[in-house]
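Structure tokens please, single chain.
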Amino acid sequence: KGRSYKILIRALDPPPGVTDAKITLNTDSRTGYEIQIPVTAQGAGLIYAAPDKITLRELPSGQTVTRYIVLRPGRAGPFELTNVELPDNAMQADITPAKPDGYRIRLSEIEPHAGLHGKNVRISTNIDGMSEIEIPIDIVR
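Here you go.
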């Protein structure tokens, strides 16, 4: 039934992070000349960090939550995590090596309050051009 085609699309040097776009195919078909295909691409930076933002619901005083950050090598290859700076002294960070060549950071004792909104978890590495990664904290009510 009809023809099928395989199309390979490769982005040249996409920006780091997630990018949403549409690919438009123009055809000579009588039933539809234009086909739009939504796509999502993940461009590799020097280091891949997820999530790119920590969103937390504001909780009553004294209640805490735990979240995780994962770091993996991007275009820079293997790297060393040298420091994690937290925006609140009560917060704790436990760093665990994760295969292959990455890290998992467990953030615990996070008390989600309005004072944390807009603050950052700062992660230091040994990679020139990405020696510091900032993960913002977003507090929602």
